[in-house]
Amino acid sequence: MYRAKFATKWMVGLLFSAGALSFAVTPAVIAQTDAAVIQGNVGDQDATFLALRDASRANKTDKVEVLASVLSNYDIPSYVDYYRLKPRIKDLVAPEPEIREYLARYDGTAIADRLRNDWLLELGKAGIWNTFDQQYPLFALDDDTQLKCYALTSKALKGVNVADDARALLTTPKDFGAGCTDLIGTLAQNGQFSQADVWFQVRQAIESGYGGVARRMAPFMDATDAQIAQAIDRSSLVLARGPGADRVSHELFIIALGRVAKNDPSQAAAALTASADQLKASERSLGWAQIALPAALKLDPQAVDYWRAAQGAPLSQDGYQWSVRSALRAGDWKLVRTSIEAMPQPLRDDPTWVYWLGRSLMADGRNEQAQKLFQSIADQTNFYGQLSLEELGQKIVITESPALITPLELAPMQKNAGFQRAFRFFDMGLRFEGTREWNWELRKMTDRQLLAAAEFARQSDVLDRMVNTSDRTKVEVDFNQRFPSPHRDIMTANTTALGLDMAWVYGVIRQESRFVKTARSHVGASGLMQLMPATARFVARKVGVIGFTADQVNDVDINIMLGTNYLSMVLNDLDGSLPMATAAYNAGPGRPRTWRSTLPGSVEGAIFAETIPFNETRGYVKNVLSNATYYAALFERRPQSLKARLGSVAPKGFTISALP
User: Fold this and answer.
1) d(CA 113, CA 440)
2) The 3-state secondary structure of 56-125, one letter per residue
3) Is the distance from CB of 565 to CB of 498 less than 8 angstroms?
4) 3-state secondary structure of 638
């Protein structure tokens, strides 16, 4: 990409005199506009487009108009028009006919659906419900939690009882925004939510680290913002004061228990025990639940006792799941079962909890019921689908590839306008926009069409889209598409020299970068194996790379050499445990050692993986080892065991004789 180094006021002025713009442009506007002027060079046009995108995101309306006007012949007009209109969508500055004209002109495209999303958010915020209700069913992706909240608010204002739908929706405070706190307020004011419902939402928000969301609910309840703030920020003072005599004081005391437990669960437990006779049984259960979750996240062995004391308390999604994880670490299969059975049905249906419920039933001798649960998910090509298959006495194998994609099936993919836009964005380094365009086109495709789209991505050397597209098929599964192994010569040389399992390394790359050679994470990790700069320098020094520079990390040969060496280092440092080494690659080598040290004894690798307290690392370990099992099946052409790869994990120096 190139950015033009100059622009002349004469050329900008020419555009204005030709009637390209309909507003007065001052010298200040000209001065702030990027110096990229179109002279027939695609690189210059792309630079101007990127400047337009940045100006639109910053709501610099005048600058947007200047840049959009010099892109009148740009080859992606829908995005030029979108970025021109988007800043004026905010607070509904743009007139409705202009918005509707855009939606009609680009009907059926990903970016039109994105603009409708933007518009609906503003309509909901302004409470323009007639237009909102007319437009919301047309929002194809329907993936915005705030819009779902606004839709329920609109129904509630019309007298529809939406309390159950709201409780099912309001589970992730980080996604709430104004739309969801407004919904809670509406339901509290019209009697559909009780004070207990509102207090639950407050606890859930604080528990998740979103105290600001909790405080926005103060007008809807019988507590003040100042009281909630004190329970959050001066929780030790609230505990020292005791539960008090009224409902509000009890609720604030319970919140303070959770806040203190984040640093010291035993201190919070002592405070609750000392005040137990001042609380109702249901309040004591809530208090123990508030202590149990932070204790569980600390992998505190006492957490399982706190969860037992919390039985019957309404829990957040995290609470339900961590009550099971604590029981798994403690080997309490009865508590595993009762905790899963207490979950709301949608959460209980997750393959994770289907599998562990099956295991708890096996521990209770109810093998027939357990087998039915395993059978219900054994066809899924994920971590718990694979483990369930093994519980049924089978191993992980690669099924026969479907019929080859024909030129006739491939032709529509090559002509697909959305895919062409995706490639244009990828060429500009705009992976978010490119991925949105690509995925939009996949929504209604059959398995064969998905396989054809994946093949088109392969032929275009866009392997991440090949993998993600092929992953969507339900019946026809092409494992070669889902689990590609490019750069085999480089990989074989490095893994053979290090005695490293090549399937595991490919499993890491598939999870880290999806084979995007220039991938860069938000924290600065780079390349196929997503190496952090400091890690790359450390490994380069260890293996004797002379004159290593940071820019070399995106070179495929060097990236794989450094990445495989680092994997070998962490694997050797962690006693050859694949779950621990995989966790170390994601979270650093110190953390898995800490997590292992809190175990009561030897546990299955699957239990260690499921009870990792970092959400990202927990998912990462499960995905990498699932990937590695399929790669091994592809490479070795024989059945594989995920359980064998997981092995067991125990505290350092643990032996069976150490058990009491």
Assistant:
1) 10
2) HHCCCHHHHHHHHHCCCCCCCHHHHHHHHHHHHHHHHCCCHHHHHHHHHHCCCCHHHHHHHHHHHHHHHH
3) yes
4) coil
- Residue 615 structure tokens: 């959400």
Which of the 8 DSSP states describes residue 279? S
Question: Does position 42 have pLDDT exceeding 60, yes or no?
Answer: no
Position 650 pLDDT exceeds 80: yes
Which residues are designated catalytic? Answer: 512
* Helix or strand holding residue 478 (H, E): none
Residues 510, 502: Cα–Cα separation, whole Å: 12
SS3 531: strand
Could you tell me the two tokens for 220?
Answer: 């809807």
Structure confidence at residue 523 (pLDDT): 82
Q: What phi and psi values does residue 640 have, to the nearest 5 degrees?
A: -125, 160
Residue pair 217/184 in contact (Cβ under 8 Å)? The answer is: yes
% residues pLDDT > 70 (the chain): 92
Quick one: average pLDDT of 437-456?
98
- The confidence score (pLDDT) of residue 376 equals 98
Q: Cα dihedral sign for 188, 194, 199, 201? A: negative
Checking 380-384 for CB contacts under 8 A at 24+ apart, the result is 380/351, 381/477, 381/482, 381/626, 381/630, 382/351, 382/626, 383/351, 383/609, 383/622, 383/623, 383/625, 383/626, 383/642, 384/351, 384/352, 384/354, 384/355
Q: Which of 191, 249, 260, 244 is nearest to 222 (CA)?
A: 249
Rounded Cα distance, 33 and 15, in Å:
14
Closest CA to 210 of 179, 235, 232, 182: 232
Spatial CA neighbour of 560 closest among 606, 519, 517: 517
Residue 222, H or E segment: none
Rounded to whole angstroms, how far apart are CA atoms 64 and 125?
24
User: What pLDDT was estimated at residue 35?
Assistant: 43
CA–CA separation, 559 vs 556, rounded Å?
Answer: 5
Q: What pLDDT is attached to residue 541?
A: 94
Measure the CA–CA gap between 473 and 480, rounded to whole angstroms: 13
Q: How far apart are CA 629 and CA 645, in angstroms?
A: 8
Contact 28, 62 (CB under 8 A): no
User: Does the domain spanning 488-658 belong to CATH 2.60.40.1090?
Assistant: no
Dihedral pair phi/psi, residue 649, rounded to 5°: -130, 135
Residue 21 has pLDDT above 80, yes or no: no
Residue 7 predicted with pLDDT over 90: no
Distance CA 442, CA 15 (A): 40
Q: CB neighbours of 136 closer than 8 A, spacing ≥ 6?
A: 120, 147, 150, 151
Task: For residue 37, name the pLDDT band (cuts at 50, 70, 90).
Answer: very low
Which pLDDT value is given to residue 525? Answer: 87
**What are 657's two structure tokens?**
């004789």
pLDDT, tens digit, for every residue of 407-433?
999 999 999 999 999 999 999 999 999
* Helix axes of 407-415 and 447-459: crossing angle, nearest 10 degrees: 70
Q: Assign 254 to helix, strand or coil.
A: helix
For 61-111, the pLDDT digits (tens) are: 999 999 999 999 999 999 999 999 999 999 999 999 999 999 999 999 999
- β-strand 648-649 against 603-604: which pairing, if any? antiparallel
Q: Could you tell me the two tokens for 496?
A: 């053979």
Do 559 and 527 form a contact (C-beta atoms < 8 A)?
yes
